[in-house]
Design goal:
CATH topology of the largest domain: Rossmann fold
CATH class of the largest domain: Alpha Beta
GO molecular function: phosphatase activity
Number of strands: 17
Protein name: Haloacid dehalogenase-like hydrolase domain-containing protein 3
Strand order of the largest sheet: 14-13-10-15-16-17
Number of domains: 3
Pfam families: Hydrolase (PF00702)
Organism: Dentipellis fragilis
Strand content: 15-25%
Radius of gyration: 23 Å
CATH superfamily of the largest domain: HAD superfamily/HAD-like
Order of helices and strands: EEEEEEEEEEEHHHHEHEHEHHEHEEH
Shape: elongated
Amino acid sequence: MSPAPSQERRADVPAHFPYILAARARPPPRPPFRTVLYPRATALLGMHPVDCHAELEFGPFGTALGHLAVAVEGAELGGEHWALGMPELVEHLGPPEAGDDSTMIRLVTFDALHTLLTPRLPIYTQYAQIFEPFLGSLPPPAIKRSFQLALAELQRTQPAYAEGATGFWTAVIQRTAVGAGADPKAVERYLPEIVPTLLKRFSSAEGYKLFDDALRVVRTLKGDGVQTGLVTNADSRILAAMEDLGILQHFSPVVVSEYEGIEKPALEVFQRACERGGIAPGEALHVGDELEADYHGAQRAGMQALLLRREGPEGEGAHKQEGEDLSGVSVVSSLDNIVDFVRRSRKS
């Protein structure tokens, strides 16, 4: 008798779309294992229920994907043996638990900022240093608040640097300076000098430094035969900084949102990394400091994931969400923890 996938969630299904059917069997069967699931499409507008089916092949974690076409106006799928997502938003439901050794990890992808490297001085301090010769002394706390507001607004209106990274950062710098109390006319006058100075600084080791564990862990993983890749929402200047810091050559594949035109937590970002690395998502691990963009995004793409939350002053720059719930989340406090995690997976 085939193991029954656990109930995952319920989703309303618009009409006339092909859908991805995702399921998980507990305990995981030994692959290859095939079964047929029979969800019911129930019409909401007085139509009769319609039986559907999809043949699924379960992988090593007991997860499976199959295609299911629904062409019933106002249809909704329900039941214990299904879970759905739009094709471009395919969800890998029931990701492997931390420490699950049933699949060997062959690729580890890293976020960049606040995972591998961090500003050498707080960003607002570096902005204050560059602003002062042109705009006079501005309070660093005011620069910090203004920068956060400007960055959040531009990220909302120009995701993935839609209008170009230089224009994006020019707008952030201009809004930061004015918001921190600088004379708008002076900002306009000196912006052509301020912007390239700041862009250059944050393209090099002058603006960033590596965390102490970054190079050591990447080299160790590569020595163990594990590919190491980069998946970042930063613009391409982060690559110049990483090259200056002597770590960029250790990463392949490299997926940068400015080049891709999409950004984490989009599933396709992680899927591209796995495809370019020639690795199935279930054999890949992603590590980053953002709960949604890094951890949940990678899991929905079928990858394993670890959330990095450094302790003490080193963790102050992490992208933390107000009121975030870390229950059930696999958290590590150092990149060193990743080596043991990966090695356990490779003993099977």
